[in-house]
């Protein structure tokens, strides 16, 4: 995640020095809290400026009293380099390295998850909101001893909505002594109250002049009027100056006169996008192919990958690596740097990554231009979506052609050193084909690429995938067919072509893969477009069961595809109450995931068992909905007047117990309103709804339960012998302690199995004081080990 800062060009000597002397910067740095926005046009040098600042004393040295955090967003990089999740992960990692004791909650959660679930990235993942909260919780600990300076580059590269949300978050952090500096384009429009702002193109003319002089230092042009002309026409955009300087040097290298060079500069479009258009529209097809790969690949390609991606053209004639490598289309290692620069007309560069060299555009604005004006890649297409779709279709075909190379079919091992492009081709052809299909690009020729109806190449793809990345969630099972792939990924164009030809030549499409899943099963799980096509054939089994005994209806209900559920029910052949190996019915799955519209459809059939329990936990649809806080679903189930409101699962928990435990106040209200929910129902640990709500700090729910007048305030659980008051005191929930004491029924001196009272458990001073003020707490009461609460 820190690679981006290393990619950024180091400032030319004599540039960027003005920032640390700028009045706005000095005022911001002098405050104990504040927001500084360095704004500028694309390519104006924001990233280089921020990197210079961090490397050259942006933060006054004051011993061990500051924490400096930084993050450089990078839209052309990997997912964590362009998302708020990556920002939070990086900031917390930096914080831990500088102050290891600042994040006890994060460390505890990590260790707990690792022991109970498994390694991160396998059994569980960090979530954005979770990490944001950990960062906020760390601030009181950090700010006791140090000040915090946060620098964030290229905020616009995380997307407009994310950028706006992050600025709001930055502003919320300023409740604390906190300095935040970020760079961003002039858009998205950010409403900032009281922030310091520096507009880069108003400040960087001298820097551009210095840069141009430096780049032309070895040429006689330096002493001419050319440098001043470039500086003036750049209008604050370093990237424009960089590209024009390259053109000037090329013209000088071939002996062009100064007058000719000056004319070329004056004829160069002043707008950066117009300049990109001019450079790309004059490219040969091979160069345009390079631009496609850099812009539309699913991740940045390494130089080794790109060599083969460029050589194995979908319209090419090569069928083996031995034929490819000696060809003119293959860029050799010794020529890769110069060829990439020449083919891209200076718009691409090679930069070091963690373990390889990757190829990328010289600036984010190049990618933005190609994506918003892709017709420059194909003058025959007028719609941007069509051009993008055709680009993805072409890349997909290249991946498939690489998989069909003779050496891969003959190999028994698939080492990356032998087949550099194999991992990308294997894991990305489907993504590119899907994007092409979404843009309505005809996919018929993919059948030819796969030599369909033969399944040999698909079988090879599955074999390679399972060898390279067996545990990926996207790894296809054995016996996968092309119709499975098209159905799963909703590639309607490809599926239509398959179904039409299958009908013509009598090929069976209702086939199962190794997991027992049919194309309809996958289509139902992932959306309705492919389902409709499959149902129209009349040749699919509506209620087919996979190895987990799950039907298409089961998958559609779980995923929340209302249109699919309607289509399946309309056939009259779908078993509404079919149980899978987990004992879950379609209604159970829909209720668990909160799909109210689907629950309504299933209930309307009058064939769904409302109290059906799953095998593992023994939970009913109502129990699942209550546990997960799906009030709309709970309301629907209760409205039938057939659902058992007080049904207990294998842990002895009722729907009310789950809702109270997890803090779902709206669900608690609905359940209590029936008059059928046992407020004092005990689970297998002897815990009541009040006990759970008190422990977890759910104040509103504690009020609701107490308001019934039926909740036993002093009931001890069977496992630990703790009362609701004991649980609330242990976890520091001051308001709940007040509520329980106000009933006059809570025993302040109730002892648990360790002999500990609520006073003994109280860790926070405010809770401790409440219990003492109650006037009954025994300060001399002894635990089983002889200690007193205050000892």
What can you tell me about this protein's structure?
The longest helix has 20 residues, at 384-403. By secondary structure, the protein is mainly alpha-helical. It starts with a helix and ends in an 18-residue tail after the last helix. A five-stranded parallel β-sheet has the order 2-3-4-1-5, with helices on both faces. A two-stranded antiparallel ribbon has the order 6-7. The mean pLDDT is 91. Among the domains are: 4-200, Rossmann fold (3-Layer(aba) Sandwich); 204-270; 279-441, Arc Repressor Mutant, subunit A, CATH 1.10.10; 684-773, Serine Threonine Protein Phosphatase 5, Tetratricopeptide repeat (Alpha Horseshoe), CATH 1.25.40.20.
Q: What is the compact description of this entry?
A:
The chain is mostly helical and 791 residues long. Helix content is 49%, strand content 5%. It is built from 40 helices and seven strands.
Largest sheet composition: 5 strands, parallel
Share of helix, binned:
40-55%
Q: If strands are numbered along the chain, what order do they take across the biggest sheet?
A: 2-3-4-1-5
**CATH homologous superfamily identity of the domain at 4-200:** P-loop containing nucleotide triphosphate hydrolases
Beta-strand percentage range: 5-15%
Shape: flat
Instruction: State the CATH class of the domain at 4-200.
Output: Alpha Beta
Helix/sheet category: mainly alpha
